[in-house]
């Protein structure tokens, strides 16, 4: 069983720091929300690596928002709902499409330099968008540019106290409210950050899978922490596998942005045949899950390990100007996009589910908020529309700031808090090996194509690992493994339960979407086990 806390502790033995608001995470969600809250309160922002190491920093394609008259929020809404495959919250999508444009202008006010054509913002199109509405920066380095601008603003803001290389281990609750977080610094010292409000902005869990576009920080810590603290976790069976990550000996699974297909690249199997017309009328710009499964089918059919992405018919100038980063990375591995087809395969990319929130970012634990990829606001449903995640983070970050402003200060004595399940203190030397085994199992048994037999096998193996929770972890790599294991357990349980195929969840034994039984959400919590939640859907 997953225990309430990862470590045994006694608050009396720890230093305590007080702050108005504690934000865990320095991606777009953490930085943007910190800047919004710092307009009126003190913020402590912690991150487990340097300030700029996050998924956000690697975001390539861009950020979706309706900013031209040729487009409309109704169309953005419709595209988002279609991608979400019947499980989006309509209210959350309305919030996203209506408040996204203002969020983007705020990013510009914070100094983000999006690409321009003449004096107008340049826009591109991505899969399943019916209009060109994606803003981008430095070609394909949108996330890095946003992080640059927001980090600079955060570092110069006197109300924001930044703690880099600090690992958040557990959320502390007292009288059913979140009162802060136990943190470990880079010297191994643990202390409590006590706050009026705590905001999880810890990103996703891409590292659950052996093949992922996500950097090493994406270990699902926020979801696992929130679960242990009693928050409801929603729809974690929906994992988006990006269709096109670089698949070349010696190269990392570097993302080849969907914008490359948006600019005209086509997919070919290893025999050189273009194949998407056999799978979807939108061809290469079909929803990501469709493209990813089509690629896997072609890989299986041709007994290969990859397919090709071909943009060689485009001009050298366009390729180098639009995709400078991707062009350079491919070149490092001897692949020239101008003349060569690029070998690609799907990889884990984005988690649609997460910590359940309301329209103001509140989780089901009072004083605990979640923002960005760690959260499940209802915007993405069963499948995220490309470039909607960066917009989601700023839109709901701003809303969280408004809600936090209205919170009354909390006065609770937590000095007597302690927790113990008498763990053995022997450190586990094989933690990296165990992590790799979990990641490989997730690819094989809980990957792009699932069925009951494989899911049960995965569950059994994970349940064997649960005894790891009885050891007192002593190093961030051990906390991360236990958090990944928790996310793995939540994902496999939800995937077993959902006997249908929809969006980022595909069951070979139930290949059809089943709206009658399954147009509902799977909610898991440490206290109540598994619940099912029906929304009101009118599409
Ligand atoms: C390669 C790639 C390309 C993408 N391209 C796009 C795109 O073009 N458009 C788009 O909309 N989306 C894109 N996405 C998705 C998008 O980047 C992410 O969903 C988004 O950046 C998540 O932001 P976030 O702030 O929620 O989390 P992140 O940016 O992942 O930040 C998480 C932060 O939490 C910190 N953290 C985590 N755990 C702990 C802990 N235990 N203690 C302390 N700190 C912790 C990390 O150190 C980090 O600072 C892409 C993702 C990837 C991987």
Briefly summarize what is shown.
The protein has 539 residues and is α+β, with helices and mostly antiparallel strands. Helices cover 32% and strands 19% of the residues.
Write the layout of secondary structure elements.
Elements: E1 9-10, E2 15-24, H1 28-37, E3 43-46, E4 63-64, H2 73-83, H3 90-109, E5 116-117, E6 120-121, E7 123-124, E8 134-135, H4 142-156, E9 160-163, E10 167-174, E11 177-184, E12 190-200, H5 221-228, E13 233-234, E14 239-246, H6 258-262, E15 266-268, H7 288-301, E16 307-310, H8 316-322, H9 324-332, E17 342-351, E18 354-356, E19 368-370, E20 375-376, H10 388-406, E21 418-419, H11 431-445, H12 452-465, H13 476-497, H14 515-518, E22 521-525, E23 529-533
Parallel strand pairs: 2-3, 2-12, 3-9, 12-19, 18-20
Antiparallel strand pairs: 1-21, 4-8, 5-6, 7-8, 10-11, 11-12, 13-18, 13-22, 14-17, 15-16, 16-17, 22-23
Helix pairs in contact: 1-4, 1-10, 2-3, 3-10, 5-13, 11-12, 11-13, 12-13
């Amino acid at each position: 069983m997953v225990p309430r806390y990862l470590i045994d502790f006694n608050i009396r033995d720890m230093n305590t720091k007080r702050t108005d608001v504690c934000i865990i995470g320095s991606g777009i969600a953490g930085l943007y929300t910190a800047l919004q809250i710092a307009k009126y309160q003190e913020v402590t922002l912690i991150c487990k690596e340097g300030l700029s190491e996050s998924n956000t920093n690697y975001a390539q394609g861009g950020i979706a928002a309706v900013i031209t008259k040729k487009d409309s929020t109704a169309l953005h809404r419709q595209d988002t709902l279609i991608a979400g495959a019947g499980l989006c919250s309509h209210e959350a999508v309305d919030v996203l499409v209506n408040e996204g444009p203002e969020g983007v202008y705020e990013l510009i006010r914070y100094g983000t330099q999006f690409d321009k054509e003449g004096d107008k913002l340049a826009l591109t199109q991505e899969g399943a968008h019916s209009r060109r509405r994606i803003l981008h920066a430095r070609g394909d380095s949108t996330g890095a540019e946003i992080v640059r601008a927001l980090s600079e603003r955060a570092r110069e803001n006197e109300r924001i106290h930044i703690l880099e290389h600090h690992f958040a281990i557990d959320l502390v609750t007292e009288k059913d409210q979140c009162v802060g977080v136990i943190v470990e610094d880079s010297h191994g010292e643990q202390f409590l950050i006590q706050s009026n409000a705590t905001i999880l902005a810890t990103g996703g869990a891409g590292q659950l899978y052996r093949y992922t576009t996500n950097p090493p920080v994406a270990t699902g810590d926020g979801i696992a922490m929130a679960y242990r603290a009693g928050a409801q976790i929603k729809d974690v069976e929906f994992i988006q596998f990006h269709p096109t990550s670089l698949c070349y000996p010696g190269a990392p699974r570097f993302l080849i942005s969907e914008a490359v297909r948006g600019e005209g690249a086509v997919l070919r199997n290893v025999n050189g045949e273009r194949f998407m017309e056999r799978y979807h009328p939108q061809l290469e710009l079909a929803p990501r899950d469709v493209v990813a499964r089509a690629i896997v089918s072609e890989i299986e059919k041709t007994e290969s390990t990859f397919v090709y992405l071909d943009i060689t018919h485009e001009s050298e100038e366009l390729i180098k100007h639009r995709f400078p980063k991707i062009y350079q990375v491919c070149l490092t591995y001897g692949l020239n996009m101008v003349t060569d087809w690029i070998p690609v395969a799907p990889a884990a990319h984005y988690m649609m589910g997460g910590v359940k929130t309301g329209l103001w970012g509140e989780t089901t634990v009072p004083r605990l908020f979640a923002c960005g990829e760690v959260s499940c606001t209802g915007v993405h449903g069963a499948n995220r529309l490309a470039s909607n995640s960066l917009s989601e983070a700023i839109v709901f970050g701003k809303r969280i700031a408004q809600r936090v402003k209205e919170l009354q200060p909390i006065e609770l004595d937590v000095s007597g808090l302690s927790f113990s399940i008498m763990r053995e203190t022997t450190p586990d030397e094989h933690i990296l090996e165990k992590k790799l085994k979990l990641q490989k199992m997730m690819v094989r048994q809980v990957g792009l194509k699932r069925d009951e037999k494989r899911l049960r096998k995965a569950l059994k193996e994970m349940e064997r690992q649960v005894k790891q929770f009885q050891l007192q972890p002593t190093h961030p790599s051990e906390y991360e493994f236990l958090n990944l294991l928790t996310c793995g357990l939540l994902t496999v349980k939800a995937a077993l339960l959902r006997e249908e195929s929809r969006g980022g969840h595909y069951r070979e034994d139930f290949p059809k979407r089943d709206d009658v039984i399954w147009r509902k959400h799977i909610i898991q919590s440490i206290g109540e086990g598994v619940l099912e939640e029906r929304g009101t859907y009118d599409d």
